[in-house]
């Protein structure tokens, strides 16, 4: 049998799917220091309000908070420092083309382990207006009601 790769989610940006329309999703590696990896594996990372930015042909993730590792002492880095994302040049150029368009941004969706390495799920997203968010909430409520009705009918 082949080797199975299990993805263990370490942190999620739940607000992203609420605030943005997700166009495309990319998987990227992330450049971390040893104490950051230990802290992330302990579930002490926060993707809320984080975004990715392209500088000098490289992509950096900004505002991602990684709490200092408790046993890390002098090896701990700044919790909000910019961390480089690892992507192929062609993917970076493609993402740069997307972000050059009006209204598009790069938003991290989740942080997870894949074959022992920390990966970031990076999305090309377009901001939602308030009425779009309301429409989504109404749609979700309608689906819930339909599921509830179907469940009640199947009981009899």
TrEMBL record:
Primary subcellular site in the record, as a coarse category: cytoplasm
Locations listed in the record: Cytoplasm
InterPro entries for the chain: SmpB, SsrA-bd_prot, SsrA-bd_prot_CS
Entry keyword set: Cytoplasm, RNA-binding
Family: Belongs to the SmpB family.
Function: Required for rescue of stalled ribosomes mediated by trans-translation. Binds to transfer-messenger RNA (tmRNA), required for stable association of tmRNA with ribosomes. tmRNA and SmpB together mimic tRNA shape, replacing the anticodon stem-loop with SmpB. tmRNA is encoded by the ssrA gene; the 2 termini fold to resemble tRNA(Ala) and it encodes a 'tag peptide', a short internal open reading frame. During trans-translation Ala-aminoacylated tmRNA acts like a tRNA, entering the A-site of stalled ribosomes, displacing the stalled mRNA.
Protein name: SsrA-binding protein
Organism encoding this protein: Clostridium malenominatum
Phylogenetic classification of the source organism: Bacteria, Bacillati, Bacillota, Clostridia, Eubacteriales
């Amino acid at each position: 049998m082949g080797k199975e790769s299990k993805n263990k989610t370490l942190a999620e940006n739940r607000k992203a799917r609420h605030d943005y329309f997700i166009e495309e999703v990319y998987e990227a590696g992330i450049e971390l220091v040893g104490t950051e990896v230990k802290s992330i594996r302990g579930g002490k990372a926060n993707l809320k309000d984080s975004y990715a930015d392209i500088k000098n042909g490289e992509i950096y993730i900004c505002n991602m908070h990684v709490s200092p590792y408790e046993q890390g002492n002098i090896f701990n880095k700044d919790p909000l420092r910019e961390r480089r994302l690892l992507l192929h040049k062609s993917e970076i150029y493609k993402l740069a083309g997307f972000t050059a368009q009006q209204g598009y941004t790069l938003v991290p969706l989740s942080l997870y382990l894949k074959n022992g390495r920390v990966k970031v799920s990076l999305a090309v997203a377009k901001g939602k207006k308030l009425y779009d968010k309301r429409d989504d909430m109404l749609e979700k409520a309608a689906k819930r009601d339909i599921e509830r009705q179907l469940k009640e009918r199947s009981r009899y």
